[in-house]
Amino acid sequence: MTSSDRSQVVDVKGTYEVRTYGCQMNVHDSERLSGLLEDAGYVRAPEGTAEGDADVVVFNTCAVRENADNKLYGNLGRLAPMKTKRPGMQIAVGGCLAQKDRDTIVKRAPWVDVVFGTHNIGKLPVLLERARVQEEAQVEIAESLEAFPSTLPTRRESAYAAWVSISVGCNNTCTFCIVPALRGKEEDRRPGDILAEVEALVAEGVSEITLLGQNVNAYGSDLGDREAFSKLLRACGEIEGLERVRFTSPHPRDFTDDVIAAMAETPNVMHQLHMPLQSGSDTVLKAMRRSYRQERFLGIIEKVRAAMPDAAISTDIIVGFPGETEEDFEQTMHVVREARFANAFTFQYSKRPGTPAATMEGQIPKEVVQARYERLVALQEEISWDENKKQVGRTLEVMVAEGEGRKDGATHRLSGRAPDNRLVHFTKPDEPVRPGDVVTVEITYAAPHHLLAEGPAKAVRRTRAGDAWEKRTAAAAAKPAGVMLGIPTIGAPAPMPAPATPGCGVTG
């Protein structure tokens, strides 16, 4: 069921707020949590609502950072006195940290009403009601998936772009990552169910989808079809009205030639690839239990560039993994120079409780990690800028976004994403444009993290996605708060790729 199916009048139970931490999978889960709450009669707290004023506050947590629990309990602590003043207020904690810590949360924060895990997010409204009636905390952690998230109601955060989950869980055993232990083994959706969801989204006005999975290109391992992912990409290419298809995140181990061919030969699959490296050292990759080596990784990059010379490739890199020597680090720098990533999400290694790497010998001193990290960032900044400069003079179709440019109001510009996902700021056209519309511009300047088109727009194409944005904005403005539910707020999913933490959820 989608938000457009749920615009009936309902009795309002109160307002809610969902706070999301971590990876894209958590962002997608939070859309489902919002949909479930709205189906149950809650309405989203208005933007700008003071902390503690929502009737229900839900924390959708991440467990991969070393201080993830401290952050959660600090936030919970600030809500404790507010809840004392408002006895009807409820607090729920879900996500990976909840799956991991279970009863510990209620012991450390006894004012929490509900604790639920990654496998049973659909139970949230029932658990809230049970906690209210029984006047005691409800802790329910399922050990296996109860319902595939995409079968649950949703409150999408965009009228024109959407996540589509194709699998949950992960079969990898990376020593720095705790996600497989918390989200379980990979489970794949049936292709027909995925395509039916995509078609329904397009019918609502969505023009861009991002296929989502913890190891997205391993899709098919649960179905017994090694080419299932490339077939899925090609099938998306047959859906009329679907302009852009992206996916995150693949794993080098499972990235096969048929996927490269599908990307190159399917017009609406964007020439953009997020390929997590983590380290360029074969020794460190072995310690990480990453089942590829430097040669294999660079071979993939070479094949992608041969098939799609204009492809923008990004990556994840961890600096200072236990045992990493200066020579190991130089191998990472070598791969960065060879691969010439459009951008890289770089992280200083930090212990993740419950992972094998946390107890490995050879933990690197903080000052050494910091120095290496700074060298890597400086190199990647230089490469990103050089790669972006190659875009100057090109004419690009930019899909207008909402909220991408923090200075757009002051500069009289709009912002959006090029087909390869580069961020483009462009001069506001004379004619009105809406998020989801497409503007053709010529790039005049490049910075390391964005492009600029200072001249007049060459063309403006009003789209069904823009129509959907306009319709939902008008509907949201016209309906009194607390009467009609299911109207999404404005804003696209977090630009892909933007992983919050390495090895978390969909970072490969």
Automatic annotation (TrEMBL):
[4Fe-4S] cluster 2 binds at residues 170, 174, 177. Binds 2 [4Fe-4S] clusters. One cluster is coordinated with 3 cysteines and an exchangeable S-adenosyl-L-methionine. It comes from the Bacteria. Residues 14-133 form the MTTase N-terminal domain. Belongs to the methylthiotransferase family. MiaB subfamily. Monomer. This is tRNA-2-methylthio-N(6)-dimethylallyladenosine synthase. It comes from Streptomyces triculaminicus.
